[in-house]
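2024-03-11 09:14:02 INFO worker-7 job=invfold-0412 stage=load source=structure_tokens
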């Protein structure tokens, strides 16, 4: 994906480190954390920072997020993510320490609980550690993440979360005194919105696991039974559940209306959003899903399960889209039917969604990161 460089801020950053390092478990796999990391890295490089993206492991299928990166990339282990033997761990630790010593003073953004627990004890004193959690507090409560945050994140200089709800949850339950909220950025801003005229619902993401596209198919099947227009559900993405989802669509009676598009190159997604009228999200959990943010920037209203503060920060119920209780397929179907059945509702909510998404433009998010850097320096 190509991202544009944000213009440099006019003021001098007196006393602030001019170097930023982003550390991921795997920095170049296709995924939300990686996409946000590369977008931020390119944007901060465009503002005059020396930026490095560090992957603890090699990606088995690297994805190119930025055509001409203005930052440097590094990998510690030559193997993909997985168990690491004692010898390989020692050698990796040695390479990591040598790299961080060579880079010198920097803000280092640790992009997951796994990265924090792996790297915190290895950081030299000239590195200022910042935790960046890409999930929701609701999801963390049901996994090892919350316990890891409790154990380790109090030793970080600052902890960044995606929404005020998430920051408040972690502050209260993980006893973090230093939480900060910065949303994920949009890589670019479309010049014009979707006309919302094509009878097409979009479902975008990995067709597997927690994304639960089977629920979106079922909700869509309920919605089309209430209308007469030739609506289709276009699923954009690939994954191991494609055969099961095809069979599920046939069983729901919408096999001829669910179109499996496969992976669409990032450069061609503009046409997909312009051709959509509604976007659906049926995940079991999400942080701040960029799919909803991107759809909103094109003026496409959303129907989603209310699974996190990040989702609620994007989908303002009855204003920029419609929320359904988590896992309630009937409610999700009714919400889809409402927007599919009313062009006026789609236009009203789509216009509000595009206006609301202005806050996620790259320049504004980069301003938030620079404000955080200034706060740390004080």
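2024-03-11 09:14:09 INFO worker-7 stage=emit residues=378
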């Amino acid at each position: 994906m190509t991202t544009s460089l944000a213009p440099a801020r006019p003021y001098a950053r007196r006393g602030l480190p001019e170097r930023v390092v982003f550390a991921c478990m795997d920095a170049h796999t296709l995924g939300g954390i990686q996409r946000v990391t590369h977008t931020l890295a390119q944007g901060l490089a465009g503002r005059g920072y020396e930026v490095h993206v560090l992957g603890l492991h090699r990606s088995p299928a690297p994805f190119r997020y930025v055509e001409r990166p203005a930052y440097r990339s590094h990998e510690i282990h030559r193997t993909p993510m997985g168990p690491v033997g004692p010898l390989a761990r020692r050698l990796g630790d040695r390479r990591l320490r040598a790299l961080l010593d060579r880079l010198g003073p920097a803000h280092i953004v640790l992009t997951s609980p796994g990265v924090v627990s792996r790297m915190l004890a290895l950081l030299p004193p000239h590195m200022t550690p910042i935790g960046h959690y890409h999930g929701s507090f609701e999801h963390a409560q049901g996994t090892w993440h919350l316990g890891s945050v409790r154990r380790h994140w109090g030793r970080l200089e600052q902890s960044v979360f995606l929404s005020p709800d998430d920051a408040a949850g972690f502050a209260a339950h993980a006893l973090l005194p230093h939480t900060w909220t910065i949303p994920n950025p949009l890589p670019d801003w479309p010049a014009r919105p979707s006309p919302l005229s094509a009878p097409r619902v979009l479902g975008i993401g990995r067709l597997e696991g927690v994304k639960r596209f089977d629920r979106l198919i079922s909700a869509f099947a309920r919605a089309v039974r209430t209308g007469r227009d030739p609506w289709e559900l276009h699923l954009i993405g690939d994954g191991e559940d494609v055969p099961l989802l095809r069979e599920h669509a046939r069983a729901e009676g919408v096999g001829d209306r669910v179109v499996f598009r496969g992976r669409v190159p990032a450069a061609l997604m503009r046409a997909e959003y312009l051709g959509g009228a509604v976007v659906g999200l049926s995940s079991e959990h999400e942080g701040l899903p960029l799919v909803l943010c991107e759809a909103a920037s094109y003026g496409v209203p959303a129907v989603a399960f209310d699974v996190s503060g990040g989702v609620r920060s994007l989908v303002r119920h009855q204003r920029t889209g419609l929320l359904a209780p988590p896992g309630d397929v009937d409610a999700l179907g009714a919400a889809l039917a409402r927007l599919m059945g009313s062009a006026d509702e789609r236009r009203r909510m789509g216009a509000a969604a595009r206006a609301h998404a202005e806050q996620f433009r790259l320049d504004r998010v980069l301003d938030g990161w620079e404000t955080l850097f200034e706060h740390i320096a004080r």
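2024-03-11 09:14:09 INFO worker-7 stage=report msg="Residues 86-103 form the longest helix (18 residues)."
2024-03-11 09:14:10 INFO worker-7 job finished
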